[in-house]
Amino acid sequence: MQLGGLILQHDASGWKPAPVPPANDLYGISGSGPANVYAVGDTGTILRNDGVRWTSIASPRPVLLRSVWTINRDLTFIVGAEGTILRVTGENVTTVASPTNRFLRSVWGSAPNDVYAVGDTGTIIHFDGSRWSSMTSGTAFLLRAVWGTGPNDVFAVGEGGTVLHYDGVSWYAMPNPTTKALRAVWGTGPTDIYAAGEDGVLFRFNGGTWTALDSRTTQIILGLSGAMDGRVFAVGGTSTVVAGDR
């Protein structure tokens, strides 16, 4: 996925552009399965794939939408500029009361009653199944991404190599593995977490320490994910896609 509304799809023959309706720049993608995938982007752009085709969905907020997290077919959250939070069920989109007006840049959840969003000036907010509320992050650094293995093991990363961890009680700072901006975090379990970002920096957390890995690129890495065959995919600037074994 990249500027200009392009979505790349991977199959047995490799990466290829997916047929999508005209769209503005896209910044986030998430799905609960092959028949329920959302992509979001500039000026309130929301696209949905139902397993057959991509279609456009009208947004009640024409702002930059930065991230989307799909928990199940009935619950998806989208976050973006001006503290925007949208709730999506199928193709029904509604605006949710937000405790902040800061730019929210990433959203992730372990369950319908345990969802986190992070953003500018160290903003972290949490959804408990009923409402969103602010959390104390202990930092003023811009936070770019959030991901976790469960409600007691959540990571947030951002500018200046910031890495925060939530243990179910409070957020605390971990030793910075770098001074470069971290833009993505993802993993397979508590002892297998990856963080990546500016200039292609890539790190792995084994449950105790962060170790630098060779990403084989100097391009900025904006997203991380994995495949069933054990590969980790990193995507970033200038159409960069790299893969490595865990």
Folded structure, characterized:
42% of the residues are buried. This protein has strands at residues 8-11, 14-17, 26-33, 36-41, 46-49, 54-56, 65-72, 75-80, 85-89, 92-95, 104-111, 114-119, 124-127, 132-135, 143-150, 153-158, 163-166, 171-173, 182-189, 192-197, 202-205, 210-213, 221-226, 231-236, 240-245. It starts with 7 loop residues before the first strand and ends with a strand. It has one domain (8-245): 7 Propeller (Methylamine Dehydrogenase, Chain H). The protein is mainly β and 246 residues long. The model has no long low-confidence stretch (mean pLDDT 90).
Kindly list the characteristics that best describe this protein.
246 residues, Methylamine Dehydrogenase, Chain H, 4-stranded antiparallel β-sheet
Provide a compact summary of the structure.
The protein has 246 residues and is mainly β.
SSE blueprint and pairings:
Layout: E1 8-11, E2 14-17, E3 26-33, E4 36-41, E5 46-49, E6 54-56, E7 65-72, E8 75-80, E9 85-89, E10 92-95, E11 104-111, E12 114-119, E13 124-127, E14 132-135, E15 143-150, E16 153-158, E17 163-166, E18 171-173, E19 182-189, E20 192-197, E21 202-205, E22 210-213, E23 221-226, E24 231-236, E25 240-245
Antiparallel strand pairs: 1-2, 3-4, 4-5, 5-6, 7-8, 8-9, 9-10, 11-12, 12-13, 13-14, 15-16, 16-17, 17-18, 19-20, 20-21, 21-22, 23-24, 24-25
